């Protein structure tokens, strides 16, 4: 049974929420949105390491992202539940071996302890397959499901590999189909392949092929045929060379283009005119540059002020009016671009011829290339330095006529070296036939190999599938046996909830149609039997049906494992009316009286009904009742329970009838509680003790030394700290043991001790955020969660 629950930074709970149960059952009342389910989430997370309704919702909702409080990270979640033997289950450390916590963490039980209303609705209203998945989490199927999933993975793996092999074989067949131009894939058979190869081989006078194994030798025979016919590769090179020579012979020389350009200039302007035109433009152009660069404002001749932009504009206009020269210049620029493109053509063809000659290696071809290269370089030197230079003077080089003569000679020579067209066609066909033979052989080899692999893999697949199907059948039978076993309990519980009603006869059945599993529910409704309850039952009746099924499953599993007799029902009676609710609570309290119950509700009437019924089943000795009176985003749920320890201590202090020894004991106990909290929050280095059973002295000396190092903290609170340090013995001599010397300690001294402890509590505990001060950095600065209390090592206390 649970002894205590601690939850921090989980869901709607921000700061540490501690609930001491001391093996009692717990009833929690709170309005919707007050944090009831967050407490249930914390218990589930501590026990199972999961929160099912979050992790299994959908892909967009995850435990890591949505389990933490909105102001916390996943790593900041701290949940723990302590059991009756003192062992602890938490999300941040593993339980000790041999403890109750260890046995629960490693049990093979299904998730049978916690039921939420959403699960009731889903289990009843879902389709058979989805219903099976929902109910499966309440069944002890973890190991068999794990094994079944592993085997299913093997079956799927084999099936995937078989499919992949089939695809590979088909691809190899498609390669043969494309090579031999076969109409459809179904016609890619051994007989068709042989027929096509034999027919194609006849045109080369090669004997027939009789077996696929003969293809390599057959390819050699085709190679011999090709070699005897001639070198087709050299023939292709020569034909390309002849095409280039024909283009070269038909091409006009660059000299003709250059001569046409310069003749056009020289016929339009004589030398004197050229010089005048050039001088005139140079004069005007230089004048514009002089005015712009020197930033002048006076005329260079008469030194009168001038409007420079206006003058420049008029000068440019005058240059443009010199139309004869302007037109001539544009014509030359156009024609010169044509000359450059012609030279580029000759350069490109020169590179092509040289590349071919690397394979032919003919000295005459290289001589032709050298002549072309030299002439191109001569014509490239025509590039002008200025337009004036272009117009005034240029001497044109000659284009060597031997280029055309040598090209014609080479054309005649190599025209006699090409193969006849018929021979070329036959050679190309032989080469294609050789390549197709290689494709057929390579793909046939792969097809034979993959076919053998596929045959072996198919056997493994069928064996694994049969084994898997048998396992599924056995699992279904096992589940059906469980359903049959709990059938009486389901109907008994349902009858207790709805006695004197002519409904029930509940039956759960596994369908055989699904390999995964499907569950159908049948029930009676007055004269009708074997009906789907969704067709006739009300929402309340469906909810209680789901509850009856869950309680029966829970009872069955608890009978096999008594370690965790913990039943948690999270707001499951929302739709149930008052009369039926009392029936259900009576059923739960009586049927599971030896179990620890945690029941939440948002219905104040139901809560009061439960409180009244508790008196019949043990009252306060067995039940603890908590009301969540408020919830805030920053803090979480605020629990209204019996008075807190500090309130009890203050009552003892103000009550004049309190015995001094009781006051000393209560003060010491409270100081121990505060010190244990500070041990964690201030990260004190104290040797561990079994079950954290520390005394005041175990913690105080280390804490006292640590707090004194924070000079401002000690300066502000030294009186309290020093007084506690001196009087900490009072608890032991007056509050724990009887002795005559202890009677000498006056009540005033004990009250002073109590006041100092209360004052110490007030300076280390923030009542706003309900947290103790903790280290905020490595400089031994301390603050509470909301930073209202701040103790900086070098600064004075800040209270915001």
Please describe what this structure looks like.
This protein is an alpha+beta fold. The chain folds into four domains: 2-107 and 561-640, Rossmann fold; 159-231 and 421-465; 250-415, no CATH class; 645-799, no CATH class. It has 27 helices and 19 strands. The strands form five sheets. Strands 6-10-11-3-12-13 form a six-stranded mixed sheet, sandwiched between helices. Strands 2-1-4-5 form a four-stranded antiparallel sheet. Strands 16-17-18-19 form a four-stranded antiparallel sheet. Helix 11 (254-268) runs antiparallel to helix 14. The longest helix has 77 residues, at 421-497. The two termini are 43 Å apart. Mean pLDDT is 82; it is low at 796-800.
Q: CATH superfamily membership of the largest domain, which one? A: P-loop containing nucleotide triphosphate hydrolases
Give the CATH class of the largest domain: Alpha Beta
Q: Strands of the biggest beta sheet: in what spatial order?
A: 6-10-11-3-12-13
* Uncertain segments: 796-800
Largest sheet: 6 strands, mixed
Q: What is the number of helices? A: 27
Distance between the termini: 43 Å
CATH fold group of the largest domain: Rossmann fold
Structural class: alpha+beta
By CATH, the architecture of the largest domain is named 3-Layer(aba) Sandwich
Any idea what the shape is? flat
Determine the fraction of residues in helical runs and give it as a percent range: 55-70%
Number of domains: 4
Number of beta-strand segments: 19
Global mean pLDDT = 82
Evaluate the radius of gyration. Answer: 51 Å
Beta strand %: 5-15%
């Amino acid at each position: 049974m649970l002894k205590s629950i601690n939850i921090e930074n989980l869901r709607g709970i921000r700061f540490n929420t501690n609930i001491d149960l001391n093996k009692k059952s717990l009833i929690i009342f709170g309005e919707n949105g007050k944090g009831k389910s967050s407490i249930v989430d914390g218990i589930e997370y501590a026990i199972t390491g999961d929160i099912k309704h979050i992790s299994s919702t959908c892909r967009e909702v995850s435990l890591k992202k949505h389990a933490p409080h909105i102001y916390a990270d996943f790593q900041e979640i701290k949940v723990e539940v302590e059991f009756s033997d003192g062992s602890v289950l938490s999300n941040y450390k593993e339980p000790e071996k041999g403890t109750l916590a260890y046995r629960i963490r490693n049990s093979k039980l299904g998730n049978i302890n916690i039921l939420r209303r959403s699960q009731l609705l889903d289990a009843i209203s879902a389709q058979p397959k989805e219903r099976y998945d929902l109910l499966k989490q309440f069944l002890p199927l973890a190991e068999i499901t794990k094994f079944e999933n592993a085997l299913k993975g093997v079956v799927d793996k084999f099936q995937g590999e078989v499919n992949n092999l089939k695809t590979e074989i088909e691809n190899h067949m498609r390669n043969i189909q494309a090579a031999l131009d076969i109409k459809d894939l179904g016609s890619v058979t051994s007989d068709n392949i042989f027929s096509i190869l034999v027919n194609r081989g006849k045109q080369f006078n090669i004997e027939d092929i009789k077996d696929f194994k003969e293809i390599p030798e057959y390819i050699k025979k085709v190679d011999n045929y090709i070699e005897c016919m001639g070198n087709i590769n050299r023939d292709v090179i020569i034909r390309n060379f002849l095409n280039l020579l024909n283009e070269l012979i038909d091409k006009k020389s660059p000299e003709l283009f250059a001569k046409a350009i310069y003749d056009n200039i020289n016929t339009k302007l004589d030398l004197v005119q050229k010089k005048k035109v050039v001088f005139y433009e140079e004069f005007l152009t230089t004048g514009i540059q002089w005015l712009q660069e020197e930033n002048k404002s006076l005329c260079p001749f008469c030194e009168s002020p001038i409007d420079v932009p206006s003058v420049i504009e008029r000068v440019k206009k005058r240059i443009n009016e010199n139309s004869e020269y302007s037109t001539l210049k544009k014509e030359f620029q156009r024609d010169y671009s044509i000359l450059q493109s012609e030279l580029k053509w000759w350069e490109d063809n020169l590179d092509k011829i040289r590349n071919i000659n690397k394979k032919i290696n003919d000295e005459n071809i290289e001589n032709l290339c050298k002549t072309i290269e030299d002439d191109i370089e001569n014509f490239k030197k025509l590039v002008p330095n200025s337009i004036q230079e272009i117009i005034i003077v240029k001497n044109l080089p000659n284009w060597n006529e031997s280029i055309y003569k040598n090209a014609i000679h080479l054309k005649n020579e190599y025209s006699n070296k090409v193969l006849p067209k018929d021979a070329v066609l036959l050679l190309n066909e032989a080469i294609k036939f050789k390549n197709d033979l290689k494709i057929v052989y390579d793909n046939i080899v792969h097809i034979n190999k993959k076919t053998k692999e596929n045959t072996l893999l198919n056997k493994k697949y069928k064996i694994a599938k049969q084994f898997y199907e048998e396992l599924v059948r056995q699992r279904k039978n096992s589940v059906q046996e469980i359903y049959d076993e709990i059938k009486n309990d389901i109907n008994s519980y349902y009858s207790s909830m709805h006695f004197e009603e002519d409904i029930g006869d509940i039956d759960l059945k596994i369908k055989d149609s699904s390999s995964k599993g499907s569950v159908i529910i049948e029930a009676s409704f007055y004269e009708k039997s074997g009906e789907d309850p969704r067709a006739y039952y009300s929402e309340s009746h469906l909810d209680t049906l789901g509850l009856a099924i869950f309680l029966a499953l829970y009872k069955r599993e608890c009978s096999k494992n008594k370690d965790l007799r913990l039943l948690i029902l999270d707001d499951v009676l929302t739709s149930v009316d008052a009369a039926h609710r009392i029936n259900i609570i009576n059923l739960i309290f009586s049927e599971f009286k030896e179990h620890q119950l945690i029941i939440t509700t948002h219905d104040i009437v139901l809560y009061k009904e439960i409180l009244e019924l508790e008196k019949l089943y043990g009252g306060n000795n067995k039940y603890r009742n908590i009301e969540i009176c408020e919830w805030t985003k920053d803090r979480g749920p605020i629990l209204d329970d019996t008075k807190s320890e500090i309130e009890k201590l203050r009552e003892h202090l103000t009550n004049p009838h309190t015995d001094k020894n009781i006051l000393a004991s209560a003060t010491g106990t409270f100081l121990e509680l505060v010190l244990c909290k500070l041990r964690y929050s201030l990260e004190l280095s104290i040797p561990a003790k079994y079950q954290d059973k520390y005394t005041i002295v175990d913690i105080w000396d280390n804490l006292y030394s640590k707090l004194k190092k924070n000079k401002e903290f000690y300066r502000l609170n030294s009186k309290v700290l020093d007084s506690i340090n001196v009087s900490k013995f009072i608890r032991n001599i007056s509050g724990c043991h009887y002795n005559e010397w202890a009677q000498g300690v006056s009540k005033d001294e004990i009250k002073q001790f109590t006041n100092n402890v209360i004052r110490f509590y007030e300076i280390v505990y923030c009542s706003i955020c309900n947290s103790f001060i903790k280290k905020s950095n490595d400089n031994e600065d301390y603050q509470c969660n909301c930073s209202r209390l701040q103790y900086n090592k070098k600064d004075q206390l800040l209270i915001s």
